[in-house]
Amino acid sequence: MKQKTIEWGTEKISVLFGQVFFPTLLGMLGVSAVTTIDGIFIGHGVGSDGIAAVNICVPLLMVLTGFGLMVGMGSSITASLCLSRGRARMARVNVTQALLFVTAVALPLVGAVMLFPEGTAYWLGSSERLLPMVVDYLVWFAPSMLFTLWTAVAMFALRLDGAPKLAMWCNLLAAFVNVVLDWLFIFPFGWGVRGAAFATSISCLTGTCIAAGYLTFRARHLRLCRLRFGKKAFAFFGRNIGSQCRLGFSALLGEATMATLMFVGNHVFMQYLGDDGVGAFGVSCYYLPFVFMIGNAIAQSAQPIISFNAGIGKTERVHATLGASLTAALMCGTVATAAFVLFPKQLVGLFLNPGDIAARIAIEGFPYIGAGFIFFIANLAVVGYYQSIGKVLPATCFAMLRGFMFLIPSFILLPRALGAVGIWLALPLSEILTAVVIAAVFRIGRRHSMRHSAVS
What are the pLDDT digits (tens) for 373-382? Predict the structure, then answer.
């Protein structure tokens, strides 16, 4: 069925944002469901050690996904600008080069993980007790890294090409395949964490094949094209990929925030509460991708609208889109916070028996970590706004603040002052401090604009 053309520069902003946001949100929640369903089956089929083992591996996936989002966001911004200026061929080249680049990066990484799984497991922070499960998961999970990168880039291209519903179905179908295969491989086949990893790889491949088929044969504006070869072509490729990575760098930092949260959190929980603490933290880390994907869905839905209208000079539409994205962030963040504060026992109970030590630690901690979700989602929306208008410096600075400058010291200092509660509060404190800085920057920028207008 032919996709309806989306008029980025003329349609009412609220309608346009809703057209893109709802299918994008559903698709991204489908992606998060892949991870969460793994956790539910592993929790009941393997136990808290299985959850802890998988959680050890998740930071690697987060960094890789962040890399894909960086290239995908960057290629979408440059392709949006090309389309707004009538340069359709160059927009196609941008998308094709982005997919080629992530493939070249992923292949050696996949090979390295499969050849050296024990070294990778130790580097990620595995204990001796969890090592066999971590290695088992890594070996079968590694191929999905290539498919994850392809999907991350392709979803941006599908939405920009006017096919947000197809992007949604790519993710939902992958989630459905993962549900079926998780159950099959973990319970009837008894493969444990290996089965969960194999199911993830197959489900990611499913979504990738659909997206690749669309971009190869069906896309209207962004169909993959043949690239030129030669010295000048390689020089252009390098410059173009460099520009894409620069524009999308803060998207990488967004995923790096999640990776840092999980990596440092695993070590801190291990230090204070041992393997049971890592298992408890692992349960929360199965839900955090949902919150992150909500923020990502808001930012990525606003991106083509903002970039296209910025390219043709319609500033008022850019500001209206920012307002719509912040409203969505406030509403979604309130719902996410309420769920963690009001229903921690039910949320943890999906993964573990509430009587387990790890479950009790998680139930106590969920309300604390949930307190920061409104700021978490809103900060992602603001970073996405600055990316979309090509202002790399503020986008990168805000992403660095929430991901490293505030988060790591919070993880180090709060547990010393507050004990285990402080570990759970590290993320909320980091996001709140970042939101305060963003609000201050917005206020200063507004005053500067008012003074400039008065002088003019």
Answer: 999 999 999 9
Which tokens sit at 359?
């479950």
Count Cβ atoms below 10 Å from residue 109 Cβ, excluding itself: 16
- Report how far residue 372's alpha carbon sits from residue 367's, in angstroms, rounded to the nearest whole number: 10
Distance between CA atoms of residues 186 and 301, nearest Å:
35
| DSSP helix/strand/coil, 194 | helix
Cα 409 from Cα 427, distance rounded (Å): 11
Q: Cα 344 to chain center, whole Å?
A: 23
Measured in degrees and rounded to the nearest 5, phi and psi for residue 343 equal -130, 45
In the chain, what are the helix, strand and coil shares in percent, each to the nearest 5?
Answer: 85, 0, 15
What are 250-259's pLDDT values in tens digits? 778 777 777 7
Terminal-to-terminal C-alpha distance of the chain = 52
- Is residue 178 exposed (0-12), middle (13-18) or buried (19+ Cβ within 10 Å)? buried
Nearest to 166 by CA among 288, 36, 3: 3
- Which residue is listed with tokens 């083992």? 53
Domain parsing of the chain, residue ranges: 13-455
Which tokens go with 316?
A: 């008022």
> Where does 92-189 show beta strands of DSSP type E?
none
Contact call for residues 6 and 19 (beta carbons, < 8 A): yes
Among 18, 19, 25, 21, smallest CA distance to 3 is for 19
Category of 87 on φ-ψ map: left (φ > 0), alpha (ψ -120 to 50) or beta: beta
128/51 Cα distance (integer angstroms) = 15
**Residues 23, 351: Cα–Cα separation, whole Å:** 27
d(CA 339, CA 115): 41
In this prediction the pTM is 0.72
